[in-house]
Design goal:
heterodimer; A: about 80 residues; mainly beta; seven-stranded antiparallel β-sheet; about 80% strand; globular; B: alpha+beta; MutS, DNA mismatch repair protein, domain I; DNA polymerase, domain 1; five-stranded antiparallel β-sheet; about 40% helix
Chain lengths: ~80, ~400
């Protein structure tokens, strides 16, 4: 099992409903991943920036993707396979 | 919480579920900070060296700790607790006390009046945690008339336990446990008790309060009460936390070192961090200690009183360096720690001389910028290239989770 730390911007298709953000699909290096399950989600604040972090499963691997609410961008922080 | 950090990692990554995992600090030389239920079966536990863990359990999977994640999940379950009662005491990153007794002082007359009602609330908490966090992050709950017994009850069944100790049944419940199972009886006190022929709570009850006080001073009364399941310490709610008595920072280095410059920089970094925390809490430090753990696992520390208590980084560092000079340096250094104690309110400390005002202004500007960015973006130039390789659990859990 390998844990790879990253800090790369990704494109995410997400649902915004009832005050919650639900990522559905993300694109990393020209590959599209449909999120099969959201295993853990939480938010935290660093300085004056809110982050929404999701541990998701897709195609047999686990990914940690995070939404930066100040800059409105998503990043992939970790791949675990 | 049960095997907290490990269970959060297993919740986040389905492939880890049911497997022995150990959560470690960022350095390869750190210890296991949390072991999963599966790893514990092999004897791996918090504090086990990584090499030992691999020997006990060759198939163990090691995961680097993610402090942001654990603090965020802690906030999630604390929010659930606070929705049941405002009287929540945060004991540690994975433990809390809830006062569910009727309280006229706060006018919260709708609090529970029976242990059965408390059990219902406990089950609600478990159910809400499963829904909001996930079913792999589990907790054991103890319900009793006081904190000491409730904590012991929470240890009775793991994982996912719910144990009630009814009033009047404390001694019967207590006698099932070893002395060291109790919060407040560690190895040293246990050894002292063993030397007196006290090896159980039943033995401890044979000693009078006077005898225990003569041997253990003020702690004697606490031991006397523990033996009877008595604890008068009230809940200290999270919104009314007492000021800390000390602040410390420590870190295990990636490699043992003889490099005094690196050790100095580490200490400066700790002093910077400690100074920032003191200023944020408006506290001055009146004593300082520095300790080194060497490559052969021996340790040495020294302390001194700070005649003019301070919260200025440069003054804290000045005192830390004067202590460091007294520490032996013949062996390589593995771990470094700085501790500041004798804390007292700053009471709007005034510096009349410009040479004192300027460092305070600089410190305050740096604090303000770092707070806004959430990172150490402003630091001493000598620390610019110092890389901590991630925030280690040894930096300590921020109890001010709701700030």
């Amino acid at each position: 099992m390998a844990q790879t730390q990253l800090n790369e911007k990704i494109t995410v298709l997400a649902k915004f409903r009832n005050g919650a953000i639900t990522p559905l699909v993300f694109k990393l290096q020209d590959r599209t991943y449909k999120i099969e399950s959201i295993d853990l989600k939480y938010s935290y604040r660093e300085g004056n920036v809110d982050f929404y972090s999701y541990s998701v499963s897709a195609q047999g691997n686990s990914y940690k993707i995070t939404y930066n609410a100040k800059y409105l961008e998503w990043k992939i922080e970790e791949i675990f396979n | 919480m049960n095997s907290y950090f490990a269970s959060v990692e297993q919740q986040a990554r389905p492939s880890l579920r049911g497997k022995p995992i150990g959560v470690t600090g960022p350095s390869k030389r750190s210890i296991i900070v949390a072991a999963s239920v599966e790893a514990k079966k092999f004897g791996v536990k918090t504090g086990t060296q990584i090499w030992e863990a691999k020997k006990m359990c060759p198939q163990i999977i090691l995961i680097s700790a993610d402090c942001n994640r654990y603090e965020a999940v802690t906030r999630l379950f604390l929010e659930i607790f606070i929705s049941k009662t405002p009287l929540v005491e945060i004991f540690s990153i994975d433990e809390a006390f809830l006062d569910l007794s009727p309280s006229t002082a706060l006018g919260t007359g709708d609090q529970v009046r029976s242990f059965d009602e408390a059990k219902v609330i406990a089950n609600e908490i478990k159910s809400e945690m499963r829904a909001k966090i996930g079913r792999h992050v589990r907790c054991s709950i103890g319900i009793a008339q006081n904190k000491f017994m409730a904590k012991l009850a929470s240890e009775a069944k793991k994982p996912d336990g719910l144990t009630v100790v009814l009033p009047g049944r404390e001694i019967e419940f207590l006698d099932q446990f070893e002395l060291t199972d109790a919060c407040g009886i560690g190895r040293r006190i246990n050894a002292s008790l063993a030397r007196l022929g006290i090896n159980s709570f039943k033995d401890l009850r044979q000693k009078s309060q006077i005898d225990l006080t003569l041997i253990f001073n003020s702690y004697g009364l606490r031991l006397y009460n523990m033996a009877r399941g008595i604890d008068n310490d009230p809940i200290h709610p999270y919104f009314d936390s007492p000021a800390p008595k000390s602040i410390s920072r420590s870190k295990t280095l990636p490699r043992d070192t003889f490099d005094k410059d690196l050790v100095n920089k580490m200490i400066l970094s700790f002093c910077q961090n400690i100074g920032s925390e003191l200023r944020s809490k408006n506290l001055l430090g009146g004593s300082i200690a520095v300790w080194l753990r060497y490559g052969d696992f021996t340790s040495f520390g020294q302390s001194k009183t700070i005649k003019s208590p301070t919260y200025l980084t440069r003054e804290i560092f000045f005192h830390a360096r004067s202590v460091l000079k007294k520490l032996p340096y013949q062996k390589s250094v593995r771990k470094i720690g700085v501790y500041i104690g004798a804390l007292r309110p700053a009471n709007n400390q005034l510096y009349l001389l410009d040479e004192c005002k300027k460092p305070l202004i600089l410190d305050q500007i740096a604090d303000s910028i770092n707070k806004k960015s959430g990172e150490q973006v402003i630091t001493r130039s000598s620390l610019a290239n110092l890389n901590f390789s991630g925030r280690a659990p040894s930096y300590g859990f921020k109890k001010n989770l709701f700030d």
